[in-house]
Every structure is written in structure tokens, then in C-alpha cells.
Amino acid sequence: MTRSAELGSIAMQKPVLVVLHQEHSSPARIGRLLRARGYPLDIRRPRFGDPLPPTMAEHAGAVIFGGPMSANDPDDFIKTETDWIGVPLREGVPFLGVCLGAQLFARHLGEKVYPHPAGRVEVGYYPITPTAEAERLFGTGVFPRRVYQWHREGFDLPRSASLLASGLDFEVQACHVAERAFALQFHPEVTYAMMCAWTVKGHDRMTMPGAWPTRQHHLDGWFAHDAAVARWLDAFLGFWISRGRDSAQPATGPAIERAFPAGTDLATAAE
Asked: How does strand 16-19 pair with strand 95-98?
């Protein structure tokens, strides 16, 4: 199926539930790519009083994004979101947690979220290593090798999850449960404009141990590494959202490789 045929065939889908944590934050590139596939976005901010649905019957999937807070904070909305993750997991609806969302996912599955023992952070672009499981799902050489990070806590691999990518200071960088629920410690949704904003408003993060120290380092990294991440994310989202509407799709094989448009250079796409 061509890309245009694929997009046309899935127009007018159920919305994807998007959970954000700041008043002016946005789903950024992930939101744009989902809309391009015909999925409206139902944006909710439980931190500011928005409710979460008791069932996913009216939604195609759910994404919980990041934020400056910790998954260990005592706020009611943190507990509400952590507990609510059980809804898409029980109903087999695609779920994606990004950074804080990934840590809430780990908490829901019984793991602790904690800072690096030496106080190190990941703020900037860092190398990750895909596992054999990532290559089984997505194809050899497709997963990005260097990704943008903005966090100071990590988590252990939940017992029910399979590791997809590992890092140095924070081992668990990506994992999944049952090919429908995915957790990404890194930020593939980040745009150049977002990076400009984060490196100004969050400048103090760049003074922490292990962080990329200057704004220019971050922006140079975007030009060097973002194209590979963007290509992977586009194809990954197609694979991820299809878990809900096509349960008969094979569970093995290079699914993301099949999702790339014809003519894509997979070696370049993966850096």
C-alpha cells in the first residue's frame, strides 16, 4: 500500500487521547504525525482538572507525555495518571509513555523511579543501543542510535516488559509490553522550536552533571541527529497505532521497515 493510500484508508479514526502536564505544552511532532494519519487528538491535562476516561472505547490509543515534575511527586494527578494507565493496558489499546509518561508506566507496573546514584542527568543527545527485540520488531538498523533526552530520573525494566534499547547512565531507554504498550525515556517528539525554548527556560538543567553544557551544543545536535529520529518516529507511530485496529497483524518481523515509504534508505534513517 502506498503512503497516500494508507493515509486515505484510515481517515476519520477515533481520536488519540493525549495527556499533557503544563498549561502551554503540546504534543509536538507526535501530535502532528498522528493527525496526518487521520487521528484527531483529545488533549487533556489532569494536572489542571481534566478527567481521564474510564474506558478507551471512544479512543484509538493514548499518549502520556513528559513534564518537569517527578513520577514520585505526591500530587493527586500523578497518582491518578499512574493508576489510569491500567485502562489502556487492560483493554489492549495502544499506549505510549514518553519520558515522565514512561516513568509513570514503570510505576504502574511495580517499578521504582529514581535518580542516578551519582547525580548524573541526561540533558542533550545521548547514544542508545537497540536490542535484538527491537530488531525483531522494527528491522535491522532502523532504531535511532542517538536520541534527545531531558531527564534526571530513570527506572528499571518492568518484569512484564521487553527491553528495546539501553543507555549508559540510565539503562532502560525503551521497552514494550505485548506490542501495544511502549515506553520511551527519550523525546522523539521534540522540534527545533521546542529545543530553543527548553534550553532557555530550563537552562539550569544544562549545569547538572552529565548534561550537554551549552545551548549551541543542543541545537547543533538537532541538525546532526534529528533526521534519523524523525524518520523512525513517523514509521513507529504507524506501527504503534495499528496495534489497535489490526490485531491480526503478524507479531514478528521487521514491522517498521515495512512501514517506511518505498525508496527510504534505512541505513541513513537509522544513522
From this structure: unpaired
pTM: 0.87
Tell me which H or E stretch contains 165.
strand 162-166
| Helix (H/G/I), strand (E/B), else coil: 8 | helix
Return the closest-CA partner of residue 183 out of 201, 158, 206, 213: 158
Q: Using the structure block, give the residue that is written with the C-alpha cell 489502556.
A: 88
The DSSP secondary-structure symbol of 99 reads T
Distance of alpha carbon 259 from alpha carbon 59, whole angstroms:
22
**pLDDT digit string (tens) for 179-220?**
899 999 999 999 999 999 999 999 999 999 999 999 999 999
Q: What is the phi/psi pair of residue 108, to 5°?
A: -60, -35
Q: Rounded CA gap, 152 and 170, in Å?
A: 9
Rounded to 5°, the CA angle 62-66-69 comes to: 130
Phi/psi of residue 37, nearest 5 degrees: -90, 5
Return left, alpha or beta for 113; rule: phi > 0 is left, psi -120 to 50 is alpha, else beta: beta
Helices 192-201 + 215-245 axis angle, to 10? 130
pLDDT at 105 over 50: yes
Residue 150: exposure state from Cβ atoms within 10 A (0-12, 13-18, ≥19): buried
Kindly state the helix (H) or strand (E) to which residue 235 belongs, with its residue range. Answer: helix 215-245
In contact, 137 and 179? CB cutoff 8 Å: yes
